[in-house]
Write a sequence for this structure.
C-alpha cells in the first residue's frame, strides 16, 4: 500500500479564484511555464472565443468545449505534482464554478491592484471560507498604477473578513514599480519590465540594509517610504501563523505582476511549501485518510453532452484516497452497483488523455451513461461509505417558466426534472402550489439558454422564460420552528419550496432580507443548503 503514498504527498490541488480580468489566466499560464508544461506562455484557453457574448447555441457548445478541456490542468514543478482547477467566470459562471471549489484543497485569490476586492471574488471567497480551506492572495498588476498597499489589505480584511499577512511588500507601482521587499529574508527583489512572457528575466536580490545599492535601485523617497512601511507593518499586521493559514483564518499576501512574470515564481514556491498534500475528508463513517485507504472519490461536477445524438455525460471526480487504476472495479455507493469507470480522462496542460493511474488529489473525468449525481461517492467494492454532500448554492437569477403547448406537460416536467438533477438549474414551486407554476433559479444566466435549448432539442418542448426580479434566496435553517405560512416579510418577498419540499424565501434586495429577519426574531436563514 505504501507505494502510492509518495505520489500523494507530491500532490497540491487548488483553484484560482478571481473576478474576470484580474489575471487568473495569465497567472495560470506563468505557472505552467515554470512547470515546463508549455514553452512560452501560450494560451491556456481560447480566450478570444471564451469572451464572446453568448446567445446562440453554437457558442454555448463552444464555450462548454472549452470548459471541458480546461477543467483541470496538471503539471509538475520542483518535485510537486500540481492540479489547478479552473473556476469558469465570465458568461460561463454557474453553480459548477462553486462546485469546483469543493474539489480543491486550497485557493489562490488573484486581485487586481487597482481594483481591490470585486464582486465575483467575494462570491467565490465565501464558498472557500465555508470550507475553511487555506486562501492565498496574489495582488496582481503592480506594473500598473495601484491602490495604496495598506488600503488594499484593509479592503480584503473588511470586505472578506479575513486577516492578512503580507509575505512581501511592493515598492511603488506602475512606472515607479521597483520590486518587492521580502519580509522574511529582508531582501528586495528588483523588478525589470523586460521579462514579458518568459521566465528568463533577471531578478536581483538586494539587502535592505545595503544603503548604497538601495539608493541605486529606487529614489530616496521610495526608500524612506519603504523603511517606514516596514516598521509600520512589523508593528501592525497579523503575525504569520501557519496553523491559522491552514484553517483559512489568515491569508498570506504576495504582490507581483503576472504579465511581466514578476513575483510569480516566488509566490509559487512559498505557496507550495505552505500548503499540504491532500488531507483526510469527512465521510458518514468518519474521516477517510488519503494515504491509508484504498481508492475513493466523489463526483463534484457533471457535464452534459450538448449533442443530441450523444446523451452521454462526463462526471468529474475528485480522488480522495488511494490509487486509481484504469479498468479497476469500483463500487458506486448511491447506485449500489459495482462497475468499471469507463474512459477515465485527465487533462495535462492543454491535452486531454486517457489515464492509466491517478492518485488522491487528482481529478478524473469519466464517461457517465446517466447514473451519477453530484455528490456521489465511488470506492472499492467491499467498502461502503458516502462523502459529505455538496451544498446547493443560492441561485442569483430567477425566471418563471411558461410551457407553450400545454399538451406537452409530461415531457416538460420530465425534462425540467432531469436537467435539475444534473445540477444545471434549480427548480422551485409556489409555496402552496404544485408543478403547474415553475420557477427556475440559476447561478449564471447562460443556464437559462441551456435550459431552453435542451428542452426544445431533447424533449421537444417549447417554453418561454419570464424574468423575475429576485436576486436573493434564503433557505429557512430552522423550518421545524417556523410557521412558514404565517411568516410576514417585506412586500417583495416570495415564498417558494424546492424539489425536496424545503421552504425558501426570495427577495429583490438584500435590505428586504435584513428587514424580514428583523420582523421574525426566531427565523434563521442560510445561503447554502446542505440537505
Ligand atoms: P482573467 O483570466 O482573470 O479574466 O484575466 P486574464 O489573465 O485574461 O487577464 C486580463 C487582462 O489583464 C489581459 O489583458 C492580461 O494581459 C492583463 N494582465 C494580466 N496580468 C497582468 C499584469 O500583471 N499586468 C498588466 N499590466 N496586465 C495584466 P487584455 O488586454 O484583456 O488581454 P490580452 O490581449 O493581453 O490577452
Amino acid at each position: 500500500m505504501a507505494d502510492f503514498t509518495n505520489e500523494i504527498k507530491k500532490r497540491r490541488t487548488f483553484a484560482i479564484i478571481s473576478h474576470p480580468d484580474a489575471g487568473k489566466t495569465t497567472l495560470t499560464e506563468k505557472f505552467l511555464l515554470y512547470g515546463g508544461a508549455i514553452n512560452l506562455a501560450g494560451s491556456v484557453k481560447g480566450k478570444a472565443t471564451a469572451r464572446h457574448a453568448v446567445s446562440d447555441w453554437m457558442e454555448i457548445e463552444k464555450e462548454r468545449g472549452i470548459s471541458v478541456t480546461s477543467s483541470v490542468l496538471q503539471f509538475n514543478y520542483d518535485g510537486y505534482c500540481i492540479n489547478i482547477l479552473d473556476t469558469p467566470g465570465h458568461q460561463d459562471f454557474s453553480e459548477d464554478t462553486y462546485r469546483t471549489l469543493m474539489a480543491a484543497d486550497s485557493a489562490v485569490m488573484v486581485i487586481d491592484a487597482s481594483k481591490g476586492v470585486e464582486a465575483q471574488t467575494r462570491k467565490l471567497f465565501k464558498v472557500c471560507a465555508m470550507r475553511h480551506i487555506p486562501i492565498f492572495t496574489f495582488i496582481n498588476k503592480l506594473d500598473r498604477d495601484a491602490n495604496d498597499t495598506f488600503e488594499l489589505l484593509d479592503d480584503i480584511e473588511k470586505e472578506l473578513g479575513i486577516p492578512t499577512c503580507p509575505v512581501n511588500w511592493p515598492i511603488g507601482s506602475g512606472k515607479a514599480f521597483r520590486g518587492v521587499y521580502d519580509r522574511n529574508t529582508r531582501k528586495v527583489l528588483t523588478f525589470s519590465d523586460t521579462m514579458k512572457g518568459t521566465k528568463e528575466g533577471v531578478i536581483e536580490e538586494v539587502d535592505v540594509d545595503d544603503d548604497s545599492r538601495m539608493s541605486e535601485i529606487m529614489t530616496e523617497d521610495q526608500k524612506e517610504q519603504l523603511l517606514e512601511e516596514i516598521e509600520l507593518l512589523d508593528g501592525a499586521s497579523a503575525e504569520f501563523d501557519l496553523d491559522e493559514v491552514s484553517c483559512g483564518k489568515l491569508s498570506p499576501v504576495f504582490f507581483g505582476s503576472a504579465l511581466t512574470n514578476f513575483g510569480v515564481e516566488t509566490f509559487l514556491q512559498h505557496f507550495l511549501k505552505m500548503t499540504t498534500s491532500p488531507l483526510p475528508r469527512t465521510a458518514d463513517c468518519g474521516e477517510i485518510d488519503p494515504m491509508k485507504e484504498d481508492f475513493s472519490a466523489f463526483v463534484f461536477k457533471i457535464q452534459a453532452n450538448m449533442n443530441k445524438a450523444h446523451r452521454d455525460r462526463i462526471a468529474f471526480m475528485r480522488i480522495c484516497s488511494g490509487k486509481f487504476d484504469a479498468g479497476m472495479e469500483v463500487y458506486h455507493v448511491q447506485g449500489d452497483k459495482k462497475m468499471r469507470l469507463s474512459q477515465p480522462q485527465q487533462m495535462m496542460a492543454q491535452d486531454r488523455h486517457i489515464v492509466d493511474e491517478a492518485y488522491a488529489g487528482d481529478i478524473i473525468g469519466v464517461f457517465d451513461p446517466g447514473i451519477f449525481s453530484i455528490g456521489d461517492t465511488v470506492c472499492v467494492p467491499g467498502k461502503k461509505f458516502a462523502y459529505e454532500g455538496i451544498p446547493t448554492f443560492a441561485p442569483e437569477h430567477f425566471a418563471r417558466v411558461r410551457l407553450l403547448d400545454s399538451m406537452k406537460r409530461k415531457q416538460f416536467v420530465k425534462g425540467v426534472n432531469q436537467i435539475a438533477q444534473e445540477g444545471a438549474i434549480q427548480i422551485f414551486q409556489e409555496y402552496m402550489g404544485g408543478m403547474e407554476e415553475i420557477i427556475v433559479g440559476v447561478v449564471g444566466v447562460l443556464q437559462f439558454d441551456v435550459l431552453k435549448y435542451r428542452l426544445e432539442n431533447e424533449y421537444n418542448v417549447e417554453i418561454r422564460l419570464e424574468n423575475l426580479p429576485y436576486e436573493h434566496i434564503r433557505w429557512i435553517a430552522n423550518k421545524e420552528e417556523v410557521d412558514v405560512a404565517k411568516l410576514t416579510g417585506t412586500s417583495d418577498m416570495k415564498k417558494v419550496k424546492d424539489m425536496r419540499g424545503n421552504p425558501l424565501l426570495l427577495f429583490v434586495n438584500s435590505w428586504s432580507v435584513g428587514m424580514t429577519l428583523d420582523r421574525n426574531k426566531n427565523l434563521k436563514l442560510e445561503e447554502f443548503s446542505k440537505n
Summary: Residues 40-70 have pLDDT under 50 and may be disordered.
